[in-house]
Amino acid sequence: MRRRAQNAPAVVLCYHHVADVPNDALALSVHPDRFAAQLEYLRDRVDVVPLSAICHPRERPRVALTFDDGLADTIDVAEPLLSAAGLPATAFVPSVALEPGHEFWWEALVHLVLEVDQPEREALEVEIGGHPLRVDVRSAAGRSRAFRALNQRLLAVHPSSIDDVIAAVAAQLGGTVPPACSEHRKMTTDDLRAAARRDVLEIGGHTRSHALLTSLDAEAQRHEIAGNRRELEAEIGTHVSSFAYPYGYSGSFTRATAAVVRAAGYARACTTLADRVTPRSDPYRIPRHQVHDWDADGFATHLGWWLAA
Q1: CATH topology of domain 10-101+184-308
Q2: How does strand 123-128 pair with strand 131-136?
């Protein structure tokens, strides 16, 4: 009788920047040296597998690595370190990231709020989703509070509302978004094609504009999800089968959204809901754990918690 494979625990890890970011206001960056130490720890203790294999039972714990948002340092910094370690990963790329000089709204807020030393007003006053927000911005601490409050509230609104709020913040505080910010640089189409050829990074979808899908009607969701897949496949010339919901929290997708993802031809979809992966996990609701700027010991502690949960 064939021996049944044991089901060791499995998790998917989520990264954003792998860079030395001076103003990491959202704590989404991992220093390259610490990222290299994290890879070394993983290589010696678990099976790092492609995302497509994360639900397949193995005797050793398994981990899949993912990178969100099409950031340039995924190609410039993370990929060479992954290649040297012999480890696979998936990069989720929204179409808009390939537009030269693009800034996501949370990146624009860094410039418009945190980098403004002398605001033109004592308080920021905006309305988001029908609710007023007023924050004293005379001090750096106040501007940090404003930045956090804006981010929290803008995560849950329609993209058109975000544009209006960004314009209001710029007008009230007097900040500007530079035409090209090296800290927020994204992949180019040439970067994307070259990465696909090297085959260290699987290229996955992340919608066309990184929109909150649940703020859109069904047709707009199809446009975002299926359109992104078509555009990526046209660039890289290979099949795109993995997807990540923008933001990924429980209110950022529904069963209907997952059905649109399936119908668009994706085989799996990742969330940012923190949990382990099992052979019974819904392939269109794969959980992930966000990795922060931990040294090897801190990373080991968190990974141990996640695998044991």
Answers
A1: TIM Barrel (3.20.20)
A2: antiparallel
The Cα–Cα gap between 115 and 125 comes to: 18
Q: Over the Cα atoms of the chain, what is R_g?
A: 20
Task: pLDDT tens for the chain, 309 residues: list them.
Answer: 344 457 899 999 999 999 998 879 999 999 999 999 999 999 999 999 999 999 998 899 999 999 999 999 999 999 999 999 999 999 999 999 999 999 999 999 999 999 999 999 999 999 999 999 999 999 999 999 999 999 999 999 999 899 999 999 999 999 999 887 888 999 999 999 999 999 999 999 999 999 999 999 999 999 999 999 999 999 999 999 999 999 999 999 999 999 999 999 999 999 999 999 999 999 999 999 999 999 999 999 999 999 997
Distance, CA of 128 to CA of 150 (rounded, Å): 9
